[in-house]
Amino acid sequence: MKLNNITLINPAQKAGKWFMLCIITGLLAGCGAIVLHIMLNIGHTVFLKYIIGLNLPHPAGDHPLIELPQKAFSPLMLFIVPTLGGLISGALVAIFCPEAGGHGTDAAINAYHRKDGRINIKVPVIKTIASFFTLGTGGSGGSEGPICQIGAGIGSTLAQRLNLSPREIRILMAAGLGAGIGSIFRAPLTGALFASEVLYRESEFEAEVIIPTAIASVVGYSLFCTIFGWGSLFHAEDFPFRNALELGPYTILAFALVPFVFAFVKIFWGLHDLFLGIKTAPMWLKPAIGGLITALIALYMPEVLGFSYGVIQDALNHNIALNMLILIAIGKILATSFSIGSGGSGGLFGPSVVIGGCVGGAIGMLFNHIMPSIVTESAPFVIVGMAGFLAGSSNVPITAIIAVSEITSSYHLLLPSMLVCSLCFFMCRKWNLYRAQEPNKVASPAHRGEFLTNILEDILVKDIYDPQKVYAVIPEDMNFTQFCNFFYRTDQHYFPVVNKEGKLSGIFSINDIREYLFNDTLGDIIIMKDVARVDVIKATPSEDVNTVLKKFTIRNIDQIPVVSDSDPGEFLGMISRREVIDFYNRQIDKIKMESEAMKEEYIPF
């Protein structure tokens, strides 16, 4: 519909447009998740079981898609396969798309904040293939990092092809990211929350992406489960929480998770920076070195290869010993740090779940042994441990609480999960797996423009102008000669004019009277009412500065009279453009200092 050459968009049409865009994004991201899942699942069967000869456990909701006979275990192939996989992955990334390397989630977060959500079309393609060679051959990592970048790349590419605005590109990029996570983990609510919460270090959500991401995530999840079956990734009983005394052991669990979060973040980023700083080795060779060291760890602890989700299923089924859980947690930290920190393509969300679940299971077994009447079994601690570690290492406490409930279909542990996630989040805020996260929206370049506008709208005229400052007001019947005698004794540039009742009726500046200054014949004839402009641009104490700044530009004036909110004729004072800008700059400097302080507080090293 058009009116006077202005196109009016029907809100229903806009909502329908976004609904369709989110559905398309969800379908495409779901297809990306299906392709990645098939490739990684078959890769594990072919490389780990058939070629290397390892029969690793699987989670209840993720069975092999193909069956191959298991060969005898070959230590030689254990070293060759992950090394060769890392070599091919590194070469693909180095030659075709360097931004597709690493754990992927950081790259997506960085694109949201600093690149208007724009991701190169090559990224999802190369990321899929590179992840297959890193993870499918046994590299330790999760599928969420690749699917984050793949889904985000799909959403971003679709938005760019449709010539959407930067804000819309960011929203659709986040929708693709969430849809990918929701699909591959069979957890649609987790996908929606993760995409909006992982962007920031503080417990803050990107509200504008939640609904689009929820729609896309539901669509992607439904498509994924239609192909691979419905249900959760892990099978667990719906463990009830019926004893408040259990909160004591759960609190101990939170404290036990902290050193493991610390170790994972420090070791991962330490090795990442170490590999990045090695200039003598080419980029494509480094993931091969990481794969070789991962194979060495797996020689003594094969459970660290791939996703290691089968370990969590065994812990939920009480099929693994306490000391083995601690060893696997340590081994998973090292294996993931070498596999992904060296430049291999994989995620950190999955390993966080595994490490947290192992630590939780070990603490649960310990308390089950010490106080069996209170902690009747260890499996609930596995679930809460997964949530707590994820909250502490990734700064996503709300997502973590929901995620473990969805991927285990166990919803009765929300209370202890809330406790442990909150404690881990607050105790681990200095260490973070995602360096691209911004502290909050204030610090995000993506929101800088709207944030500056919000600052201006939060500042009111009454915060700036000085009601005690005296300004000369000019009576309407003062003649020009009388004004000139007064003008020579003042440095005022704008002069409000008042009527006999003292009400503001006009205003003039020294520029308005310039043409009369040297005309002696007009001095007694002209009165100041004739000189003043009656269409006065005014401000009130309750007006925001954003509105006032626009008024300054109407006539390119430097000062505006302030009048009472209740009486537009009651002159209260003046506000100048310079005062507004000076006050605004001081506010910005204050906020910048607070933001820098927050950044220093969150630096992981």
**How many distinct domains?**
3
Counted by DSSP, the helix tally is 22
Helix-strand category: mainly alpha
Strand order, largest beta sheet: 3-4-5
Mean pLDDT: 87
CATH topology of the largest domain: Clc chloride channel
CATH architecture of the largest domain: Orthogonal Bundle
CATH superfamily of the largest domain: Clc chloride channel
**Rg from alpha-carbon coordinates:** 32 Å
Overall, the morphology is: elongated
Order of helices and strands: EEHHHHHHHHHHHHHHHHHEHEEHHHEEH
Strand percent estimate: under 5%
Write up this protein.
- The longest helix is centred in the first third of the chain and has 42 residues, at 11-52.
- Residues 1-8 and 601-605 have low confidence and may be disordered.
- The protein has a three-stranded mixed β-sheet with strand order 3-4-5. A two-stranded antiparallel ribbon has the order 1-2. A two-stranded antiparallel sheet has the order 6-7.
- By secondary structure, the chain is mostly helical.
- The chain has helices spanning 11-52, 75-96, 105-114, 122-135, 144-161, 166-184, 188-197, 207-228, 247-277, 286-300, 309-316, 322-341, 349-370, 379-394, 397-408, 414-427, 448-458, 480-487, 510-513, 528-531, 545-554, 577-602, and strands spanning 2-3, 6-7, 474-475, 494-498, 504-509, 559-563, 571-576.
- It contains 22 helices and seven strands.
- Helices cover 59% and strands 5% of the residues.
